[in-house]
Each structure stands twice: as structure tokens, then as C-alpha cells.
Amino acid sequence: MTKSILLRGAALLIAAVSPVMICAQFQQPTDEELKMTADPKAPGAAAVYLDIQEVENDPLHYESFYMRIKVLTEKGKELATIELPYLKGNWKVGQIKGRTIHADGTIIPLTVKPEDLMIAKNGDLQANKKVFALPSAEVGSILEYYYEIHYDDDQFSSPWWTIQQSYFVHKAHYQFTPFKAFMPRGTPGTDTSMVLEDRRGRAATALIWWPRLPAGVTVKTSVNGSYSVDVTDVPPIPDEDWMPPIGSMLENVRFYYSFTNNGNEFWAGESKYWSKDVDRFAEPSPAIHDAVNGLISPTDSDLDKAKKLYEAVQALDNTDYSRKKSASEMKELKIKEVKNAKDTWAQKSGSSEDIAMLYLAMLRAAGLQAYAIKVVDRDRALFDPTFLDFDQLDTTLVALMTGGKEIVLDPGEKMCPFQTVNWRHSDAGGVSQSAQGITYSITPPQLYKDNVTQRLGDVFVDAQGGVTGRINIVMNGQAALHWRQRSLREDDTELKKEFDHEELEGQMPDGVEAHVDHFLSMDDPYTNLMAVVNLKGSLGTATAKRMILPGFFYETRSRVPFVKEEIRQVGVDMHYARRVTDEITYHLPDGATVEGAPEDANIPWPSHALLVAKSAGQPGQITIAQTLSIGFTFAKPDEYQDLRAFYQKVAGADEEQLVLAINRTAQAGPAAPTAQTSPSAQAVPVGVEH
Amino acid sequence: MQKRVSVPRVLAVAGCCAAMLPGWQFAAAKDNQEGLPQWALDAAKTRTPDYAKDSGSVVLLDEYVETIDAQGRALEREREAIRILEPQARNESCEVSYDVDEKINYFRAWTLGADEKQYQAKQTDFYDEGSEEEGMVKDIPILLETEKHRIVHPPAADVGATIFCESEELLAPWEQEKFWQIQSGISFVDEALEIDLPEGRNFSASWHRFSPVKPEEVAPNHWRWEIKDVPRLDLRDVKASLEWEALAARMSVTWGDAAVHGKDDEWRAFGAWYANLEAHRSDPTPEITAQAQQLVAGAPDFYTKLKDITEYIQKKIRYFVIERGIGGYQSHPAMDIFRNRYGDCKDKTTLLISMLQAIGIQAYYVPVDDRRGVVDPDAPSLFGNHMITAIEIPADVKDPRLQAVVATKDGNRYLIFDPTNERTPVGNLPSYLQGGYGILAAGSASQIVALPVLPPETNGTNQTGTFTLSPDGALTGTVDTSHSGPEGADYRLFLKYTDEKERREFWEKLIAHDLPGVVLDSFQFVQPSDLEKPLEFEYKVTVPEYSHAAGPLLLVRPRLLGDDAVPFDDKPRKLPINLEATGRWHDTFNITLPPGYVVDETPDPVDVDAGFASYHSSTTAKGNVLHYERDYVVRQVEIPADKAAEFRKLESAILFDEKGAAVLKKQ
């Protein structure tokens, strides 16, 4: 008899919420536990897990979970609410028991029946959750509960133990008894004629596991064929700004029923299927050849050919940016599901993945050497080869081989210029086709010079400190791509509001209001994108003899990152390298002269980042410029103190002021520009390297 | 009732008891292969009005027909036509909500494509979702509902297309009021509401922020209201605004007990309905009585008794509930709440009433909304999202600690108290409730009551800082703050839901707004268990580069911490201005200057009194100490739009003062 392995997604749904175990016997708390008011192992924590037990028994088709939690603060009381998600149908939440034990030892059992709430339902697939709250939870209480999940006899599941929790864990025990076929031969009751198959129909002949565990902790096997892990003193999941996707870094153990007992073989096998699918989808059929021949000329260089084809696929309807047609709509329109590149081209429409594969087909039809690369979206996760699930790779890129070099292209990203890759797909791990076969690969990182934003402006100051002016925000690289992609999903009015909100609000000095007037070159990814911003308000503060203005018009205030974080547990992920230049020319009121200006500065973090500030005065005006270059994407925890020291200096430098001496006998302000002028857009830089 | 998913904030309920609104309903999809119905074809002929052209979409038609049976139960049909104008509306959908006791009879959707092609949604275009969880604490929900939503994404919903949805739903038997949201996040061209009543059954309609429209009797006791051209309400660029729900036009029609004439009688009927719904829920059990008597044993006066009971509810009853059907309105029995030690706002009120009753004090339910302006005295309705308590004050009790007092028409005095707010002491009132309205549900004495606006002395912060500036511009110092009233309560709540690390992060971020690069050397909250006493906060900071040399000068901003200025603009103002809270905020900062420097200039003093608020500040130099002091007093929670000029003047003055710098010169 052959049975399918339970879909991993079902197991994930549960694992996401609950760590886990067996043995419905509650424990008698110790005096020490009852009296505990704080935990020296978790200073300041709202709660700690005293005990976690999770047991999976696949032969018996059940899982059990047991938790014991000590509430240390008011916030910790919220752990008295428990949600147990499950898939309706093949899964059932069985026995639920719970109780609250007060610090004086009083026990209040759970008597309220858990509520069964729908999460979502689509066709026959329905996810529900059981919800209950332990009674009378107080600071000092111990919360204790146990529940079981049973699944159908024809369902099988290997567990994924999430070791780290939101709060410190004192002790945890995990135990897994696998499907009979993976228990030691001769173990009573393990004879079976059943064979598990994966989704490709391969017989599962091995049980493998990948632990990411603290030093000294291992997965233990027992003589009866079960597996267990015991851990103590597990720190909570880190919660820091600018973290890499943390889900990819947590301590866990994953078990797999697999056709192989070797991880590399798994990836080789899965990649082979993937590569075959790619080659089938991207088969340069006659229709693709015809299309390519109509788009390129034989005399074009390889790069020109590639670019022309790139433009052709970019011009198609990318449904990830417009709207995916529903099944009923496709039926109504008699449109077939896309099965290969020819279909995508014929429909002039497809998802990002479809379009990337079409592009690959077209390059191949043009006689160019090109391969598919499959990576993880770095905004979501990091590639983890120990996570034996090919579906973690979610993005297809194309590698073009020309002139002895590999050029990575991102045709599925609408508005992404040729040879530019969305940062989510750069420095990203995955697998790649190549002349040598299929290999692990990491895409190239972003370079700071490719992601430049310049904020160039003229600010006209009157004698009372009021200002009017205009700033041109010139963007290329990732910032331009971001706003261009947003423009595909929003109209101009909405886009301007969003830009005001995300790029201007909170960055203008207090009292100054700035709004985008219009964008230039929004539709042309090969030109710098410009946002033309009008501003007005009150900027300076006047005294009897002087006026004081912020030296650097853009205020970073508390937004300078890292200044407040003294210590760091995990590395820093800046997403991509970049450079931002601010260059503002203040046009002074009549009679005003510069009495003090921000000092020129050069603040380096060698090989990583640089802040340069410079000012230059002329009669009636002063230009102040600042450039912050971030040349790194990731910083390791041991680099953190250097990084923080750099940003502390940046924060301090930002607070420099401009002091004007005012002659109150001459009080007219300078003439503000008309709406069409944008002088600083063409202004000569004042010495800051651009 | 259908609800457009993409419409922002339409009847979105936040706050304590999200399900105080009758449930939206559900529907079942059928794969009927019908073309567009005639009503849809007619609606499709509607021209896109100019006023909608900067919107993502426009509602061409939204029509409700409520058919009421002899028992007062409603069958609701809704038809809706939405034209998609811009890309952001491409995924426009329709939604029907349903709860226990409700049934969707049908739910259909069609699209007329930009190319005039017709589509009908199939079963695969529909899906169901549970209600969103309201309120989360570190990913743990504190309020869940049994209500579900059926959603359809009509096919081919591209720019230029018009989608049509039609549903019919049998509403819950206890729903006897229809809330008609006339105004939304997108504009309406045609709107209609019909109510078809059995012979002899009355109705009563009320209007909020909309001139009443007379209904037409289209058949015997079958009434129709029609409205055209209602622009969308978009508050994203409106500074100091009231909540969207308070400003959006709506109408309410009831066919239940409140279908009477005269606003007072309507409010009375709503209050009586509510009191009846909760009848006996608050009956004290022997355990509750014993607990209440134990709590007040030895209490010397009325106020102390109240304090003992209310603090028990505030501290011991955790906020958590799953609302099922009428549970959106009706609390659990007091004995269950007492046993489980958790509940929502209605539950907390029920247990409070029960415990007070056990010691001989009478108290009542007061349905309200925690968004000031939503409950409208001129629009009788059950529309609201929260429940608080009115505690009857005996005639002989005159205690100045009882601040939040209302006097009713019959001469009774009630203390208004919010037991869900775990940190505002009895006698005071959270700022979000001040200036609003609530229904005193006291049987035949039920009425609408104006919730009090408390004097500035009941709320605010006193902040004192002592600093030393070094010649290199570094600033070190100590700050002591004292937060009282609702503001103190907010801080206490912040402490409840954060751990040490989060508090440090939050506070450093807050201070860094004024003092970039600041390092929080140490901090300490002193939180007296007595809620009446202010929360104290002491901290020490170092700012490596606070003061900057500008040539021979050193610039020092004497207003070191705190932002009193409210962002405002110079656009013409039509909507009321929200001042949020009354209170008094006082700052005193002393900065010892570095040796060798003298003060060359100080910012001018500010002295503004606009009536609704005042602001005074001064900077003086005495010896080597720069002294800054300011006093900000707010006396009203809301002012009308015609006060915008005064408000602007006040805010400009505050902003000017906050940015002001003293200039130091080297001797």
C-alpha cells in the first residue's frame, strides 16, 4: 500500500503556533517556582517557559503539547490566551486540559469549553483554530496546559521543532516516533507493508533530520526508534531593528521522510526536477523563435539582443503588478493556463515567474547562452540548504553568459532596468543552472554607486525665518525601482500622498511642510526618477541679532539607526548598499550674512561607510551638502560597535546649525523661484564627491 | 450586509468592544449562469462624476432593502455597483459578513468589463474568512469574534470595469436597527435604503452629519430614502482631526422598541432595551458579595469604597473575550466573569455593577464609543463600540475627588467610570471619553448624557531637568517627570505591556527625537499602586554632541525635551479641531553652561492665551545657568473649525519657542 506524506504546509500551520508533547499529567510546582517574582536567567522578562514538552507519534497519528509558563509581569498574563490552529478535515484537536496555579498554590482548572473559530475557508480547504483562556491568570501565576492533535490514519507527518520561543525557556523536551518503516527492525509492532511516497512519487526510504541546536545539544535516538531533544536555558527569539529574516536563523530541528538520506542528494534530485521543468517551459519553440527573430537583428551584439528581448518581456502584462485573472475569468475568456513560454508570449501576459522563464526561452532562441537561477526572496528569508523544501526558493532570475562573464537579470521585476536586480534578489542564495550542471549559487550584491539618491534644493529664507522653496529628489537604482513599481499599482494622486508620507513627512524640519508637485520620468526606467517637491513654512528662529537655521535641511532626528542599541545579538541587514546626497542652497534674506555654518566633516567607517559634509558660501546664499555612503549590506554582530560608533557620529553631525547675522534695517527676503525653475537641479556641487 | 473590503475604515471598529455593531452578514454563492441583471445594466449607464475622478473607484449604486417580518426580524438585500477608476482599485471586492443566527440566502457578483464584456463570479471566486482579531499583545489576541466574512473578487475587475454584487441575508432576530453608512472612503453617486414594514409597525430614523432626507412611501408601510452624490471622506491630510467614524455621514433606522417619536423617547427606549438585555446578568452571587464586602471592609467613605471595588476590577479582570452573536451587545453573567477573571468592557461593567450592588451602591450600563463624536445626541442609535459605567452618587456625598460627574434631568448625579481602562483612577475619566456622549441605560430613566470635560488640573505632566553642558558640546543631566490623570494612566498601561528592553528602546527613541545621539544612562519608573498618585519617571542622559559651535558661537536650544506643538497647516478648515485632552504640561530646565562662555542672546518669551489653551515660556540667564520654563494648558478637548486661526497662531508660537536657541559667546 502506498500513502502520501502529509503536506508540509499542514504541519507548518500547527508548528507556527505551538511548540509541543505527551503525558497529560500536570506537574506539582516547586516552592521555588511558586515564589518566583523575577528570573535571573531572563532579566526583565514578562514570562518564562518553565517546561515545554512536544511529542509526535506518527504510527499513532497524534501529537501532544504541554506547556508550563510562569507569569512575571502584567504583560505575561496575555500568555493565558491560547490559540490552536488546525486544518479542518483530516486534523482534529483532541483533549485540551489547562489550569492556573496562583503563587499561593491555589489551583483553578480550565472549565470553559474552547471556542472553535474559522480562520479561512476556500473551497474544501478550511483552517480553524481552537481558542481558550486559562482562568484567573495573575502576575505570579503558573499557566499549565496540554492538548493533543490527532490526524487521520492515512496521514503521516514528520515534525519541525521550533526550539526558540518568544520568551526564555528553562527546559524543553521533544520526542518523535517515526512511521513504522523507520523504526529499528525487530521492534515489536513495526512491521508494515506500507510505503510512503513524496509528491513526486518517490518512495521515502530514509528519515533524515537537520538540527540547528545550541552547542552540546544533540538529537538522541532510542532503542525503540524514537528521537528526542532535551534543551535547557533557551534564549528568546531576538527582536532587533534591521535584522536579517529571523525565521531563517532560529534554533530548530527538522525531520524529513525522504527518498535519500543525504541532503546534497535531496537538492541534487530536486534541482534536477526543477531544471528539467525550466528547460521544458523555456523550450524555444517555433513560435518563440519567430517572436525573437522579429525583435532582434542578427547584427546586434549579444548584449543588444539580450536587452531588446528584455524590453519585449518587460512590456508584457505582468500580473504580479496588475491583476491575476481568476479561474472563472480564464474559462470565460477561453484562456488556457500558462504551461510554457509560448503560452506566455501568446497571451502577452504572465506572472513574474512566467515572464522570467519566457525571457530565458527567448535568449536561448536567440542563440545566447542563458540559465535559470532560483533564489529566495531576501526580504522574506535566507536560503537554508538544511531546510529540505525546494519551495523555499521563490524567485527565478536569468543568468546570461556573454564575453566570458555572467550577467544576472531580473526580467520578472517590472520597471527594473536591464542589468539591474531588485535588492530582494541580490546577495540571495539558491540554485543555478550552469554549463557544469546545477550548482548552489549566490547572486551578486548591490553596489552603493548603483543606488544613489540626491536631494537637491533651493530654500528661500525671509527675515522672519519663513521659507519657501523646492527640492528635486533624484533617484536611481533601488529607490527609483521601488517608486516605479508603486506607480503601477496606484494612481498619481495616491502615489504623491504615499511619497509625501514615506519620504517627506518626519524628515522635514518642524514647521516646514513639503509635498510632491509632480514626478518626472516615472515611466522610463532608464532615466533618473525625479520627484519635484514644493515646500513652505517656518524654518528659522529669529533673535534680535540673528537667525538660526538647521544646518542640514533633512532632519534625521531619532531615525538615525543603531544609536540607541548598545548591544546586538544578530547581525545587521541594510538590504542594499546606497548613497544619499543632500545639497541645499539657502538663499538668505537681505542684510543677512553667515555668522556660523556647519563645519566640514569627513566621518569614515573604513571599508563600510562614509559621511562627508561641506558648505560653501557666496554673497546672499550658502550651499550645504552632505553625502552618506553605505557600502555594505550585512554587518556581523562583532562589527556592531564600529557600526554604532559611526552612526552616533552621523547623528551628532546632523545637528549642526547655520547662524545668520541679521541687519534689521534691510528686511526684504530674496525672490522665490517661479514654479518652473529648479536651480539646484543644475547647480554645481560644492565639493562633495557625487 | 455587503461591505467593500477595500473601503478604508468603513464602520471599522477599534477599541474595547468591537462587536457593539450588529453583525454584517453572510451569503452563499451559486453558479447561476445569468447575464447582468437589469438593475446592474441600469446602474452601468451612470456616468462617472467629476468629483470622483481622483478616487480609485466610485460607487454608482448602493441600495439596501430591509424586509421586516411580523416578529421584527429583517431580511436584507443589498445591490451594489462599483466602477474601477484607478489601478489601486483593481482588486475591489464585495463582502458579506455573517454570524451565528444569521444566514446568507444568496450572494452573486458580476462584472461589466471595460470592453463591455459580461462576467459572472463563480464559486471559485468566493472565499470565507474569520473576523480579524481586535487588539493584540505580542501576537496574542485579546478580542475575537465568531463573525465571519464571505468575500468575492469579481472577475475582470480592471480599470474601466464596473463590478456588481447582490446579496440577500436573514439577519439575527435581535437586530432591530439598520446602520446606513452614507459616506465612505469612496464617493457614492446613488444610494438608497428601503424598509418594508408589516402593517402597524413603526420606524424611526436619525441622521448623523447629514441633513435628514424625507422617505417616500413606495408601497403601504414600505419606505424609501434616496441620496445622490455623496463625496468620499478622506482625512489623511487633515491635521488634528477627529476620528473618521465621528465625521462620516450615516443614518440609522430602527423598527424595534426605539421606533418612537422624539429624541428623548428614542434614547430612553434604546437605554431600556439595553438594560433589559442585561437584566440579571449582574446579580451578585454569594462569592461576589463576599469579595465585595471584604474589599470595602473598613472603607471610611463612599469614594474609598468605590476605589476599592474599581481597582479590583481594573487590576484583577484581564481583558479577553470571544464574542458570539448577540455577545457583541450582551455581557456574560457576573458569576462567570468573577470566576474566570477575564472579560471585555461589557463584562467588566457587569462585574462592577454586581460588586457595587453587593455593597448597596447602584450603578448602570452606559453604551458609548471611544471615538469622541461618534455618539451623536441628535442621532439616537445603538451605534457605538464600548461600554462604561455610571455610578449613582448619593445626594449627601460631596467629594471633590469625584470629578467625572454628570447630573441628569431628574436631578440624580452619576460618576462616569471606565472599568476597562485599567489605569485611570475612579473619579477621573480617560481623555478619549471626555466630551463624548453615552446612553445611561437605567430602565425608564434612560437618557443620553454628555460625558464631562474635566479641568486641566486633572491631567498632565510636570517635567524638571538639570543639565550640564561641557565645552565640547556634550550634555549630561537628570530628568524627573511626574504624570498624572489619564496621561499617567497611559504610561502605566505602557509599562504593563512592555518589558525592560522595550521600555528602554521606546524611551530612547522618544528622547532621541529631541536629543539626537542620546544615550539613556539609567531610568526608573516609580509606579505607586494607588492609581490616584502620579506615575514618576526619572532618567539620566548623555548627549555627546548636543551643542554645536558655529564659528565663535555655541548654540544651545533651551527647550531640551518634549513637543507640545501639534502639526497644523494653513488650509481652510471646515472640520472641528481635535485637541485630544485637557491638561497642564509644565517644563523646567536648568543648564549649567561651560566655563568661559556667556549668554549673548536668548529666545524671546512667548505668551499666548487663546481661551481654549494657553502657552507661556521664558528663557533667562542667571550666572552660568540658563533657565527655561514653560507652561502649556489645554482647557477644551475639541474646538470648532472657526477657531482655526487662533489655533494656528497658538501652534506657531509653540513651534517658534520649541525651536528657539540661545547663543553663547566665548568670553
3D architecture notes:
The complex is a heterodimer of chains A (690) and B (667). In chain A, a hairpin with an 8-residue loop joins strand 26 and strand 27. In chain A, the strands form nine sheets. Chain A has an eight-stranded mixed beta sheet with strand order 6-5-9-3-2-11-15-14, with no helix packed on it. An eight-stranded mixed beta sheet of chain A has the order 26-27-25-24-31-35-34-33. A five-stranded antiparallel beta sheet of chain A has the order 21-20-19-22-23, covered by helices on one side. Chain A has 690 residues and is of the alpha+beta class. Chain A contains eleven helices and 37 strands. The N terminus and C terminus of chain A are likely disordered. The longest helix of chain A is centred in the middle third of the chain and has 19 residues. Chain B has 667 residues and is an alpha+beta fold. Helix content of chain B is 17%, strand content 36%. Chain B contains ten helices and 39 strands. In chain B, helix 4 packs across helix 7. The relative contact order of chain B is 0.09. The N terminus of chain B is likely disordered. The interface between A and B is large, with 80 and 91 residues. Strand 7 of chain A pairs antiparallel with strand 6 of chain B.
